[in-house]
Amino acid sequence: MRVLAVAGVFLPLSAAQSAVFTHIEGSADHATLESALNKVTAVKDALADANGPFTMVAPTDAAFTAALPELGIAAADAATLLDRADLGEILKYQVLSTTEKVNPLTAGDMTTVQGMTATVTVSSDATPVTKVVGSNSAGVTISSSADVGTSGNEEHAVHVCTDRILLPKPVYQVASEATDLFSTLVAALDTAGLEDVKTGLGLQNGGALHTVFAPTNDAFAAYLAARGIDADALLADSELANIVKYHILAGKVMAADVATGEVDTLYQATLYGAAGKLSLARWQVEFGEGWEHSDG
Fold first, then answer.
1. What residues have CB less than 8 Å from 35, skipping those under 6 apart?
2. How far apart are CA 273 and CA 28, in angstroms?
3. Where is 225: in which H helix or E strand?
4. Alpha-carbon separation of residue 191 from 97, 156, 186, 188, 241 (angstroms)
5. CA-closest candidate to residue 11, choices 22, 23, 1
6. Distance (Å, rounded) from C-alpha 172 to C-alpha 183?
7. For residue 165, what is the DSSP state?
8. Cβ contact 89:165 at 8 Å
9. Residue-range domains of the chain with CATH
10. Residues 6+ apart with CB under 8 A from 168
């Protein structure tokens, strides 16, 4: 074995060239974001220059503090944000999936690295106000923007917000906004006895990750017809809570990972992915993906 002496330290590309993280690290207002990225190193490493360019919304410490009530976290327990299982998903939602830096931001829907869409709005005021909207309809207000890069190559854009952090829509919100698809499911979640499930599919769930096999209105209609009952009877059914829980998995399961076999639901073990059992179609929900199925 040969040992060669070198006059320097070799660093992985992601550690050596992450202009976005270097910019955040050098900001006095982004200590929480810096800590979060150091906590979820997979996201931090993904921001390497070689993987870019990136366009990122960078919430300040004040923005993180302001967002705590939306996440059900008391101000005195701010440190618990960094221990949430969904922290990586929240961080990925701050990064827009683009092939080039976007500065200034332009109005329209933009896909994030997390996979869900955020909406950019630009006011028509003499001094335009730019906002990025996720779960909160008020959006986050961009207070300043900067092009960042290395060696004079400013290939990334960082947009600072101070009023709150950008959060993706939770499962329940996605379903409630898609009434043409999921009004029956939402009505079921709104019934007594399912409060804990509804909370679990919201932002104030402690960061728990879920995957939902979400029955569409057509799926429920087929089920009701097969049982010979109407929607009111379903919503009054003592088994409704178990029926809904049977469609929810604890944890994040992506479409590509769905396979034949048993998996635990919030109710009991179930079989998914077997031929003829479920007709699956991709449906974006919070912090991953769920699926709508059409066979009741």
1. 82
2. 49
3. helix 217-227
4. 38, 47, 9, 5, 9
5. 22
6. 11
7. -
8. no
9. 13-161 (2.30.180.10), 171-293 (2.30.180.10)
10. 89, 90, 93, 112, 114, 116, 118, 134, 135, 286, 287
Distance from C-alpha of 249 to C-alpha of 291, rounded to nearest angstrom: 11
Residue 76: phi and psi, rounded to 5, are -70, -15
Ordered per-residue pLDDT tens for the chain, 296 residues:
455 555 544 444 445 468 999 999 999 999 999 999 999 999 999 999 888 899 999 999 999 999 999 999 988 788 889 999 999 999 999 999 888 899 999 999 999 999 899 999 999 999 999 999 999 999 999 999 999 987 667 789 999 999 999 999 998 999 999 999 999 999 999 997 899 999 999 898 889 888 888 889 999 999 999 999 999 999 999 999 988 998 888 888 776 666 666 667 888 766 555 443 443 333 333 333 333 333 33
For residues 158 and 167, the answer to whether their CB atoms sit within 8 Å is no
Burial of 271 (C-beta count, 10 Å sphere; 0-12/13-18/19+): exposed
- Residue 37: phi and psi, rounded to 5, are -70, -35
